[in-house]
Specification:
Blueprint: H1 7-14, H2 16-22, H3 25-28, E1 39-47, E2 52-61, E3 64-69, E4 79-82, E5 86-90, E6 92-97, H4 103-109, E7 112-117, H5 122-133, E8 142-145, H6 173-183, E9 188-192, H7 207-219, E10 224-228, H8 231-239, E11 244-245, H9 258-264, E12 268-269, H10 273-279, H11 300-306, H12 319-331, H13 351-362, H14 367-373, H15 376-381, E13 398-402, E14 415-420, E15 423-424, H16 427-446, E16 457-459, E17 475-478, E18 487-494, E19 502-510, E20 519-523, E21 540-547, E22 551-558, E23 566-571, E24 577-582, E25 594-601, E26 606-617
Parallel strand pairs: 1-4, 1-5, 6-7, 7-8, 9-10, 10-11, 11-12
Antiparallel strand pairs: 1-2, 2-3, 5-13, 13-14, 14-15, 16-26, 17-20, 18-19, 19-26, 20-25, 21-24, 21-26, 22-23, 22-25
Helix pairs in contact: 6-7, 9-12, 13-14
This protein binds zinc ion.
Length: 618
């Protein structure tokens, strides 16, 4: 979504580099054994994507469903899974996500075996799709992606720090669409949103360019899916012939004829009630963080993010309008597709789709209709002909849950097993790895403070080295770890602040190649890099800086904030100047789990040069 207060989403989308830097892939590697062994799931209640079979057996062989029926006769070497009392569903499909980092892993853990990404980094899309085509990544949700989205210069989508090709005239539409298809986009995502629904303003595409984009996509056999902000935009988009809406609107109750308009144009709608709650200042994911079936499979950063929402907006957007619209769409038989917009504030990959099902039921869908919206409906509309239903010959993307979601939709969270192409996901190991990560983080925080860590002073550089009184000392950190080409150099120089002898000089060149480029110095308060430490007895970071007059950033990583740093900026002018920044202004941290503090240049490209001195936590 968007708003003028997009800082939260900016951080999510803008720090792909830090995700790459900090993601610990070893935690989440699939087991090497990808045997597509044959098995039969017996006595399950089966939701086949359309309807419920009270009890059936499902026989899986070589990654596909071989047969469905009563008391199937199978060879004796076929493993039997007794699913008495359980419900078997097609693997779920989330029809609106932004995939990067660990998102696809998190999705599959929660039974979401396919994600329809609606805007991500093109290189990430290409690499992931290549790996999946090579038969790798069976423990990750299958990715379909729009790649880059179509928006006006300065429009929604350009604020995340990923440099994207924009357009503004109908004549540019076909070349723009063709370039996306050449990059590997599976469908075309378009943004029509001037941000007025959120009390702000952004440029947006005009109607003629919208129509040209939709026509250009259709000319190449691709779907055109459109993000909208207001009801008038939604109507314009439907009349332009778009295949689907990527959100519902929150500015007004639906016009009485809204659903009929959508139905007459045979379009589908992905309401994304999760994120619309967030935009309405409701922390949509909060209840997931206390659900015993969900919480053990959430990372610390998921939990933090699920409890968040967008800040209140002057226009008071209301999720209730979207729920009313869903009810109207249902009555008009418009296909509704479940989507989350993860990982925007209030959402996380996988878990939030279960919340979306709950919200769709709250809006008036039956549980069967809600499950259809996350299985056969998106498969049909996105032409994923090999999945979304349980039938012979289809992929064995399966979700087995305890109990009966037709009685209580929340039963989808009580997961017994997840299979992708017949390979069972190792949820137990994943859960144990998360548990260990959380315990390690706790331990590190509870460990006795390292010697010297009670010092208010981190570094005055008077000993002529980049050492610190505690922690790791100052180390160079550049985006080369994330594939960038920015360079940097740190050295202790003569002439410190406050008449001191020395200061730390940081020089470098920010390369334009990465939109989230950085180069600078990093200090970790614990004994090793990114080891968390409890610094809650301090209230602020203070330091002296001088330099070439450019604006620089202080980044703070916390365990609870995950891999996304909070940031504040300062200007380094010709004379030494003291800056004091309260911990609280770094996303409200109380300092109890600080992993690292960085002083960096970027993302603006070019040379930089600044000095820091007398860095204190006080
Ligand atoms: Zn989105």
């Amino acid at each position: 979504m968007k708003s003028k207060n997009l800082s939260a989403t900016f951080r999510v989308m803008g720090w792909v580099g830090f995700y790459l830097l900090l993601t610990a892939p070893s935690l989440f590697l699939a087991s090497a054994d990808h045997a597509h062994s044959a098995f039969v799931i017996r006595h399950a209640r089966v939701f086949d994507g359309h309807k419920v079979l009270a009890q059936a057996d499902v026989w899986v062989d070589a990654g596909k469903i071989k047969a469905i029926g009563q008391d199937l006769k199978v060879p004796s070497d076929v493993k039997v899974v007794d699913a008495t009392g359980d419900t078997l569903l097609p693997g779920l499909i989330d029809a609106h996500t932004h995939a990067f980092g660990n998102g696809l892993k998190e999705a599959e853990i929660f039974g979401v075996t396919t994600e329809l990404d609606m805007f991500t980094d093109v290189r990430y899309m290409q690499q992931t799709k290549k790996d999946q085509a090579d038969g790798k990544d069976l423990d990750l949700a299958d990715l379909r992606s729009a790649g880059t989205l179509a928006t006006a210069p300065g429009g929604h989508g350009t604020e995340y720090g990923i440099k994207i090709p924009t357009l503004s005239t109908p004549a540019e539409a076909q070349p723009w669409v063709d370039a996306r298809i050449a990059e590997g986009s599976d469908y075309i995502k378009i943004v029509i949103d001037d941000a007025s629904a959120y009390g702000s303003h952004r440029p947006t595409l005009d109607n003629a360019t919208l129509k040209a984009l939709v026509d250009a996509a259709h000319k190449r056999g691709k779907l055109a899916v459109v993000h909208i902000g207001r009801q008038v935009d939604a109507r314009m988009v439907i009349e332009a012939g778009a295949d689907g809406l990527a959100h519902l609107f929150l500015d007004t109750a639906p016009d009485p004829d809204f659903a009929h308009l959508v139905a007459a144009h045979h379009a589908f709608v992905v309401p994304t009630l999760d994120v619309l709650e967030s935009v309405s200042n409701i922390a949509s994911g909060e209840s997931l963080t206390t659900d015993p079936n969900v919480a053990p499979y959430l990372t610390a950063e998921d939990i933090t993010n699920l409890k968040r929402s967008f800040p209140p907006m002057s226009t008071h957007p209301s999720e209730k309008y979207a729920e009313q619209t869903v009810a109207q769409l249902k009555a008009a038989h418009v296909p509704i597709l479940a989507g989350t917009d993860a990982p925007n504030p209030g959402t996380s990959h996988g878990a939030s789709l279960h919340r979306e099902l709950e919200l769709l039921v709250r809006s008036g869908l039956t549980p069967e209709e809600a499950l259809t919206s996350a299985t056969s409906a998106p498969a049909a509309r996105f032409h994923l002909d090999d999945r979304g239903v349980l039938a012979p010959g289809k992929r064995a993307d399966l979700l087995l849950v305890k109990g009966d979601p037709m009685e209580d939709i929340k039963a989808t969270r009580d997961i017994v097993s997840v299979w992708k192409v017949g390979v069972e996901d190792d949820r137990a190991t994943y859960r144990a790895s998360l548990e260990k990560a959380k315990q390690d983080a706790e331990k590190a925080i509870q460990a006795p403070p390292a010697s010297g860590s009670d010092a208010l002073l981190v570094s005055d550089f008077e000993d002529g080295t980049p050492n610190a009184k505690f922690g790791t000392g100052w180390m160079l950190s550049t985006d080369s770890l994330a594939g960038g080409k920015s360079t940097g150099d740190i050295k202790v120089v003569d002439g410190g602040a406050n008449g001191g002898k020395h200061a730390l000089e940081i020089t470098g060149l920010i390369d334009a190649g990465l939109p989230y480029a950085w180069s600078g110095v990093m200090f970790s308060p614990g004994p090793q890099a990114f080891g968390a430490m409890d610094l809650s007895s301090r209230k602020s970071i203070s330091f002296f800086a001088k330099g070439d007059g450019q604006t620089y950033r202080v980044l703070v990583f916390t365990t609870s904030g995950g891999r996304i740093p909070a940031q504040q900026s300062f200007t380094a002018g010709a004379d030494w100047k003291k800056t004091t920044i309260p911990f609280a202004s770094f996303n409200g941290t109380d300092g109890h789990d600080i992993m690292a503090i960085l002083f960096v240049g970027g993302p603006a490209a070019g040379k930089f040069d600044f000095e820091i001195d007398d860095v204190k936590l006080e």
